[in-house]
Amino acid sequence: MSSQSVSLQTKTPKNNKASESAPKKKQLPQNWSGTLRKIWSYCSVHKGLLALIFLMVLISSSLGLLGPYLLGVAIDRFVVSPHSDGLIRLLLLLAGTYVLFSLSSWLQNYWMIGVAQKTVYAMREDLFRQLHRLPISFFAKRQHGELMSRLTNDIDNVSQTLNSSFIQIISSLFTFTGMIILMLWLSPLLTLITVVIIPIMYFGMKWITARTSKYFKEQQQNLGELNGFVEETLSGQSIVKVFSREEQMTEIFLEKAQKLKVSGYWAQTYSGFIPKLMNGLTNASFGVIAIVGGMLVMHDIISIGIVVTFSEYARQFIRPLNDLANQFNTFLSAIAGAERVFEVLEEKGEINDEQDAIELPEMRGEIVFSDVAFSYNQQVQTLRDVKFRVAPGETLALVGPTGAGKSTIVQLLSRFYDADHGQIFIDGHDITSIQRANLRRHMGFVLQDSFLFQGTIRDNIRYGRLDATDSEVQQAAISANAHAFIMKLPLQYDTMLKQDGSGISQGQKQLMSIARAILADPSILILDEATSSIDTITELKIQEALFRLMKGRTSIVIAHRLNTIQQADQILVVDKGTIIEKGSHDSLLQQKGFYYGLFHNQFNEEPA
User: Fold this and answer.
1) Span 357-442+524-534+553-608: which CATH code?
2) Is the C or the N end of the chain the one with fewer CB within 10 Å?
């Protein structure tokens, strides 16, 4: 919400609408050739099918050129100087030409759709897999909706271009080349008149594209930001209503929508000049060809049939260029979208495990932090000289003010981040020498905000261990005190949960999270405010389930409710990134330090 709060403070004044609608200069997209090469790396997997598509494009383009020529022959032979010899044969040949043209066109489109869908499927798969390879820090800096826009909207733009624009571009190039050859053969003079429009078109397109490409890039960026904001607003709708921020959020939305409108307006305005330019040049070309061609016929230099054929070729001469112009919007949008997709694909994933990284079949759960220091950025150090030891099976509690560094300790232990200095050991092994997947497989997490996936209750619990049987899932639910409420549901364990588990209470979600952790059977258990925001009765059920889960396991508990950690083997008091006190509950009270004051303030007692 920080970015949104800034927006509230820096809104453009309402009386400055002219500045809002003025085009803003943006950097041009990265070079197209690099992006096109990356797209080709996906398409080239289907080289055989692409070769057939190119063959069909060549055949259809050739047949498209043959039709007007046969029409001109028919006019000269059967209209200007009427006789019937060969008329039926020519009509059959003309009909066959157009039938084969239609068949080859259909085949090339049918096969290209298959290639396009397989290509974007592979891109979506790679992008989704890449999202799982990226470190937690990547997601902390980006809106989820903006990433979703890359996975959906941007790849859809690539799909649309491959489905429609790609064949039109190749067909237009083939048709244009063949047409130039035939036009030169029929009448070099008329050909010269026709191609005069090419430099006009070139400079016109250059002027337009120089202004269009940057706005398509900006349009895609603004669309991603708007999607991210909408997704965030919908997810936090209850907070919006509680604080009555509907108007403010609407104003922020309108600002972002205004940016999208402006970039889209200028992109479509400039690109809209392209078909208008093409149509104007086409009409001018027809007029000149009709006048000059008529004069040549009057002087018996060429026949009427050649003028008709040439006029058709002149129209088709403009058509491939017009097709390229009409597809340019889609092409630019696809390039901009593909760039955004490849930006994510080229992000560095989590640092690969060392080549000699080991896999621990079992863990006793001994944890040692040795002079650990860490910072999320170079300006502020989050942890300094953190050192402690947790024996196997012990419970360690972390307490302290918000932002003290408690959650960071857990994130370093699970290697969501790596320490800048110092070492962390599990069972005597430096965690950097342990495979990440293996390390995390031995850990179980019960967090403050329980996350459940859309699916059945059974599947959500089984997420802790995918090969668990139905009876093992049920036993885990019983151990977590979740079985009773599940059996009261209409479909019991087969009850479908909506996204994020909506439909059941927060306490029931937490019990299911505990059941999932029990089923995973971890060696090290992480509890991050697992009982916060829960009613007293449900808290007792959760506490009972947690004690059952923690038995025999090394546990790290982050807690603000000090009554939940009084039985911990040791308590670390963390403040401003350092451990300022250490000991059991009773020994910390006897020290009468930070923990002592925190405990008495929480229970509204006067310190002795």
Assistant:
1) 3.40.50.300
2) C
Confidence of residue 186 (pLDDT cuts 50, 70, 90): confident
Strand 570-575 relative to strand 421-426: parallel, antiparallel, unpaired? Answer: unpaired
For β-strands 443-446 and 578-583, DSSP reports them as: unpaired
C-alpha angle 10-16-17 in degrees, rounded to nearest 5: 110
**Residue 77: per-residue pLDDT:** 67
Question: How many residues can be counted in the chain?
Answer: 608
Are 331 and 165 a contacting pair, CB within 8 Å?
Answer: yes
**Residue 240's pLDDT is what?**
74
Could you report how far apart the first and last alpha carbons of the chain are, in Å?
A: 42
Tell me the average pLDDT across 112-122: 84
pLDDT at site 500: 62
Per-residue pLDDT, 537 = 66
CA neighbor of 136 nearest in space, from 451, 436, 416? 416
Same fold, 28-345 and 357-442+524-534+553-608: no
| Helix orientation angle between 304-326 and 197-235, rounded to the nearest 10 degrees | 30
Query: What's the pLDDT score for residue 31?
Result: 58
pLDDT digits (tens, 9 = 90+) for 348-369: 766 666 677 788 888 888 888 8
pLDDT class for 243, splitting at 50, 70, 90? low
pLDDT at 382: 83
User: Under a CB-based contact definition with an 8 Å cutoff, are residues 528 and 558 in contact?
Assistant: yes
Give me the torsion for CA of 109, 111, 116, 118, rounded to 10°: 160
Q: How far is CA 479 from CA 394, 418, 446, 513, 544, in A?
A: 21, 34, 15, 12, 9
DSSP line for 12-72: PPTT-HHHHHS----PPPSPHHHHHHHHHHHHGGGHHHHHHHHHHHHHHHHHHHHHHHHHH
- What are the CA-CA distances from residue 68 to residues 310, 315, 320, 338, 411 (Å)? 8, 11, 16, 39, 72
Non-local CB neighbours of 134 within 8 Å, separated by 6+ positions? 344, 347, 349, 350
Fold of 451-521: Rossmann fold (3.40.50)
- Among 487, 481, 486, 474, residue whose Cα is nearest residue 541: 481
CATH of domain 28-345: 1.20.1560.10
Closest C-alpha to 553, from 404, 391, 415: 391
Q: Coil, strand or helix: which one is 103? A: helix
Distance, C-alpha 589 to centroid of its chain? 51
Backbone angles phi, psi at 214, to 5 degrees: -70, -30
Confidence of residue 70 (pLDDT cuts 50, 70, 90): confident
- Residues of the chain with pLDDT > 70, as a percent, come to 79
- ∠92-94-99 over CA atoms, to 5°? 90
Q: Which whole-number Å values give the CA distances from 518 to 397, 443, 475, 529, 548, in the listed order?
A: 20, 11, 9, 17, 9
The one-character DSSP state at 434 is B
pLDDT tens-digit series, residues 21-61:
333 333 334 556 777 777 778 787 888 888 888 888 888 87
Provide mean pLDDT across the span 495-501.
72
